[in-house]
Amino acid sequence: MAYIMVDIEADGPIPGDYSMIAFAAVKVEPGLNHTFYATLRPISEQWIPEALHTCGYSREETLQFDEPLNAMTAFRDWIAEVSLDEPIFISDNNGFDWQFIAWYFHHFLGENPFGHSSQNLGSLYKGLMKDMFVNFKHLRHTPHTHNPMDDVTGNAEALLSMREHLGLKIKL
Questions:
Q1: S-S: 154 plus which of 6, 18, 107, 142, CB 3.0-4.6 Å?
Q2: Greatest CA separation found in the chain?
Q3: Within a domain: residue 171?
Q4: Burial (CB count <10 Å: 0-12, 13-18, 19+), residue 85
Q5: The pTM is what?
Q6: In this structure, what DSSP letter does residue 36 have?
Q7: Which Gene3D superfamilies has this protein been placed in (predicted)?
Q8: In a domain, 136, yes or no
């Protein structure tokens, strides 16, 4: 198994009507040496300026990004390269991140290498601590900036910290 931490940025709340404009992934392992980053051209004429502002892009910039088919093909190939068997999708907000990744994979490639399941980092930490009111974010070393590479790195650092300091049993 390979745990793949994913973070996405979008110009609106749902795929299809709005666009995923950037995402990053890292294979969760000591050193965090296997990373992936892509920016994607919008697929819709709809967009919310505040959403783009949050992640630091202008609409004009996003219109120059890569074609989604190219980005998703490269991501699928990267997953196959870093995952010898079943890749496991995990993210800080899997309800949001998963819907975009799954939709884009199925829409552009007709398949999702992650299958039909995802894991939520925050829920994992709450269960580990046996407390529904705790938050894992203090375990990040890399600041959360809404740049997907920064955010995915910080989240992967948090998962590794859960393993190292809190006894989380996870095969890396």
A1: 142
A2: 47
A3: no
A4: exposed
A5: 0.96
A6: E
A7: Ribonuclease H-like superfamily/Ribonuclease H
A8: yes
Identify the three-state secondary structure at position 8.
Answer: strand
Domains held by the chain: number: 1
Tokens of 66: 């890569």
Beta-bridge mates of residue 89 = 4
Closest CA to 43 of 7, 25, 70, 24: 70
**Tell me, what CATH number does 138's domain have?**
3.30.420.10
Query: What is the pLDDT at residue 1?
Result: 85
Q: What is the mean pLDDT of the chain?
A: 96
Among the listed residues 41, 111, 39, the one whose alpha carbon sits nearest the alpha carbon of residue 77:
111
Helices 148-166 and 121-129: crossing angle, nearest 10°?
20
* CB-based contacts of 49, cutoff 8 Å, min separation 6: 59
- CA dist 124 and 154 (Å) reads 16
